[in-house]
From TrEMBL:
GO terms for molecular function: ATP binding; ATP hydrolysis activity. Residues 233-388 form the AAA+ ATPase domain. This is AAA+ ATPase domain-containing protein. The lineage of its organism: Eukaryota, Viridiplantae, Streptophyta, Embryophyta, Tracheophyta. GO terms for biological process: response to stress. It catalyses: ATP + H2O = ADP + phosphate + H(+). It comes from Psophocarpus tetragonolobus. Signal peptide: none annotated. Its cofactor is Mg(2+). Residues 316-332 have a biased composition (Basic and acidic residues). Keywords: ATP-binding, Hydrolase, Magnesium, Membrane, Nucleotide-binding, Transmembrane, Transmembrane helix. It comes from the Eukaryota. Belongs to the AAA ATPase family. BCS1 subfamily. The chain crosses the membrane at residues 6-24. Residues 303-332 are annotated as: Disordered.
Amino acid sequence: MKPGDTFAHVGSLIASMMFVWAMFKQFFPYQLSNQIEKYTQRMVAVVYPYIQITFHEFTGERLMRSEAYSAIENYLSSKASTQAKRLKADIGKNNQSLVLSMDDHEEVADEFNGVKLWWASGKHISKSQNTVSFHPISDEKRYYKLTFHKSNRDVILGTYLNYVLKEGRAIKVKNRQRKLYTNSGAYWSHVVFEHPATFQTLAMDPKEKEMIIDDLITFSKAGEFYARIGRAWKRGYLLYGPPGTGKSTMIAAMANLLGYDLYDLELTAVKDNTELRKLLIETSSKSIIVIEDIDCSLDLTGQRRKKKKEEEEENGKDPREKQPGVQERDVKSSQVTLSGLLNFIDGLWSACGGERLIVFTTNYVEKLDPALVRKGRMDKHIELSYCGYEAFKLLAKNYLNIESHHLFGTICELLKETKITPAEVAEHLMPKNSYVDAELHFKSVIQALELAKEGARLKSEEHA
Ligand SMILES: Nc1ncnc2c1ncn2[C@@H]1O[C@H](COP(=O)(O)OP(=O)(O)OP(=O)(O)O)[C@@H](O)[C@H]1O
Ligand SMILES: [Mg+2]
């Protein structure tokens, strides 16, 4: 018989005794029944020196699924697969593997710092059915029960439970299907996020790439550090550079590296600061909030457009008259302000627990309001620039699986004096059919570089 079974039997025996006592205690004088109860409790504590904690699947008035329950479920999945006799299996949320968990009324043992403890799964089936609904409502209320010796109370409550929650959450992140959220107005909708970009395939200076990866990994593991120094676990990145240099690709690579969800926030679709706050508060932990082309969004949403509207109103014109087809919502969108965004990043935002990255992208860093880019607000500024030789070699390897070629020297020289984006190089390296003629692709790159060089020369002559 397993220790857990023993507890269950002793537990139910004691429960029966308590039930009988509750029926008969009314026949005893109050003082006496009080004394009996006190001593019974002490005896129970001696006979049954174990503590039990129950974690219900649904909690609160609105019966939300308990985060603790799902973390425990994930934590126990690895124990269950080796110990439990009855398991439940389902396709993991990443759609790739089977995830096993313990079935109802199963038990598994665990050990932590030399302390033994037991987990049991169970369910209550409620008999009341007072709602009429077309949708079947499950009356099963599942729970996990943890049993441990009372002498280990401090270890379990102080360290073990935190450890279980942390491990469980980590397993959940690993197994989950990641999402890409987009907003239309004040609501997020999502699709499955399956972008193949990784830092390995991102063409940029290898040293800088290494630094960014280090920075991201350090951030993702720094929860305790942020808590110790009393700062919100957030980090801001500003990615800037010309179109086609890999800003959006890098964001996808960041999400893939850390296993985070992506929130692609379209500021121009947000009515005002209140809507913005609502959207940001709704983002979940372990996510990247992206505002692309921040300069354009703020042109539409900042004070400038508001002023224009006011001017037109002063001239006696309805600002909407000049913009046929513009919806009322677009006109109203001017109410999201830079200060609203900044206040949220610095202030209230800190109250949302859990790690979040916020990433802004722009093609024109010099156009941005200094308030937005000042140090301390955006922690890291990353420039994605034109294609260098190292970046070209990586693209050649990725697209054509070629690491050296006699035309590399010419390309290297041309790249030093010509600006071409990785997106354009990639276009010339993209195989058109199953037969790959590398020479042809590299010649096409050289041609594009020479054209760009000639274009730049003519432009500079024009300006001279
Ligand atoms: N550094 C890079 N490494 C690998 N591929 C790249 C890189 N830069 C661009 N590309 C390729 O070019 C395409 C366009 O890149 P991306 O959308 O990331 O550019 P961007 O900097 O976000 O441009 P924009 O400023 O217009 O939004 C991508 O699909 C990607 O395949
Ligand atoms: Mg982009």
